[in-house]
Amino acid sequence: MDLRLDSEWQIRPIKGDTGKTYLGLKAQEKVFIKRNTTPMLAALSKEGITPKLVWTKRTGNGDVLSAQEWLEGRLLTPEEMGERNDVIDVLYHLHHSDSLKNMLEKMGGQTYSPEKLLQAYEADLPKVMKENQFLTLVYQYLRQHIPAFHTKEKTVVHGDVNERNWLVCNHYLYLVDWDSVMFGDPFVDIGNVLGHYVPVSNWRQWLISYGVHPRNEIIEKTYWYAILSMLQEIKKYYHKGDYQAMNQEILQLKRIYIQ
């Protein structure tokens, strides 16, 4: 896409999943630009959860560009996702922030119950996944064990907390890419992290560190959201044509499912 700012800016596309990210250069200024991302960025930046928001601009065709400070850093490794306490700290901050909750309310943020998340998974589900015996078995398990969810307990959740969305800069950890932000059960994020990066034998200790007593129903809910996150990833990789990543996700799902 041709992205235009004033003539002093040089804009370079950044390779990514969405095709909506750019590097902006102007004299000594260097910023990360994203097109049509969530208006939540200002509040998230103020709370230190995501890099500082520098400016927003509306282009002639109606797109909204958000520029954040460019930080030299690196992404977390899968091993670090399960080992770093600051991953727990950032998620706890996000899930317990009243100001972020109020901001998302003002924006009309949608609430995703477990049923609604399953409906989103079912939408445009590839035929090959519908016909896969193992994936169908897992899906039926989710249908039969939907966890309780009360809207009064909803929190702001990121919705896509894989290692590619965690940025370490000078030992400070940021959570980025907020296109999936929504209201829901905090276990949307917790289950994703635990299912992908933490051995099941360590789940209880991780939950205690987060501040949750790991009763059996909590472990069962964690398990439910972990499995759902894997089905969602398998579907995403299939649509992208990344069959190697899809098969790796299926292997991880089998490891968790047979526990």
TrEMBL record:
Q: Which residues cross the membrane?
A: none
Q: What is this protein called?
A: Phosphotransferase family protein
The Aminoglycoside phosphotransferase domain sits at 40-206
Pfam families, A to Z: APH
The record's annotation in InterPro entries points to:
Aminoglycoside_PTrfase, CcrZ_PhaseVar_Mediator, Kinase-like_dom_sf
